């Protein structure tokens, strides 16, 4: 897109600080069901589901976890079986060897250092083997203590299209969003962008004509 056109488009929609509130409010109305797609019923199940979701779809993880959670109820249960057995039980989520290693390392640390409980802070969560910042962010936010903003492929694409960031790197995008999005919305905001990205602002063919924020978006095609 030529620079002058981008500049014109940004001018047309106004500064991002003035747009962020209406963007959030309209997306909330458009996607009242926007929540995490991974199914879990406890902090431990949530942590496991998020760890398994790396490099695969949430649908795939949701197919595997009912049987997994019925069999492995406590951190100790993941350590009580041979590693190969756990690998078989999570095989369908892909990268099963690496994920089994991470799960066992995490469960060991939960037992030894956290009394078998899932910690709530990002600093503690990222100490768990195989738990990267993105996983920690998702878990902390779902447990009611968001300390950052999760940036996945949808959040990245929509933040750029909406002119909320000019960055490419997820860490830098998160930094921009943290400055812009009100703290009480840190947990919900990524879900709104993710669901809007799946349903409307699709990567290859954004449906700008039916988008509820097209007048607030410098990338709008209408
Ligand atoms: S107007 Fe188009 S590009 Fe902008 S958020 Fe909506 S669908 Fe995406």
Number of helices: 12
Helix-residue proportion: 55-70%
Write down the overall geometry.
elongated
| Average of per-residue pLDDT values | 95
Bound molecules: iron/sulfur cluster
| Rg result | 19 Å
SSE run = HHHHHHHHHHHH
Fill in the keyword field for this structure.
222 residues; mainly alpha; 12 helices; binds iron/sulfur cluster
Briefly, what is this?
By secondary structure, this protein is mostly helical. 58% of the residues lie in helices and 0% in strands.
Q: What's the SSE blueprint?
A:
Elements (H helix, E strand, L loop, with lengths): L2 H11 L2 H15 L12 H10 L5 H14 L3 H6 L2 H8 L5 H18 L8 H4 L7 H10 L10 H9 L8 H11 L7 H12 L23
Written description of the protein model:
The protein has 222 residues and is mainly α. It is built from twelve helices and no strands. The model has no long low-confidence stretch (mean pLDDT 95). The longest helix has 18 residues, at 96-113. The radius of gyration is 19 Å and the shape is elongated. Iron/sulfur cluster binds next to loops. Residues 161-162, 200-201, 206-208, 211, 213-214, 217, 219-220 line the site of iron/sulfur cluster (SF4).
């Amino acid at each position: 897109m030529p620079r002058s056109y981008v500049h014109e488009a940004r001018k047309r929609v106004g500064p991002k600080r003035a747009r962020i509130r209406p963007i959030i409010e309209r997306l909330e109305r458009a996607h009242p069901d926007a929540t995490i797609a991974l199914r879990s019923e406890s902090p431990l199940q949530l942590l496991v589901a998020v760890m398994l979701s790396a490099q695969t779809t949430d649908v795939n993880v949701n197919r595997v976890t009912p049987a997994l959670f019925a069999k492995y109820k406590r951190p100790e249960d993941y350590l009580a079986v041979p590693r190969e057995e756990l690998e078989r039980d999570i095989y369908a989520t892909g990268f099963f060897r690496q994920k089994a290693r991470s799960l066992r390392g995490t469960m060991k640390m939960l037992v030894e250092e956290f009394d078998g409980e899932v910690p709530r802070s990002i600093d503690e969560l990222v100490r768990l083997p195989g738990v990267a910042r993105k996983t920690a962010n998702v878990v902390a936010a779902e447990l009611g203590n968001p300390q950052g903003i999760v940036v996945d492929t949808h959040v990245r694409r929509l933040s750029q299209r909406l002119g909320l960031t000019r960055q490419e790197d997820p860490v830098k995008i998160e930094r921009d969003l943290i400055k812009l999005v009100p703290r009480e919305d840190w947990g919900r905001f990524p879900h709104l962008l993710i669901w809007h990205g799946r349903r409307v602002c699709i990567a290859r063919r954004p449906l700008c004509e039916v988008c509820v924020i097209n007048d607030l978006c410098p990338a709008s095609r209408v």
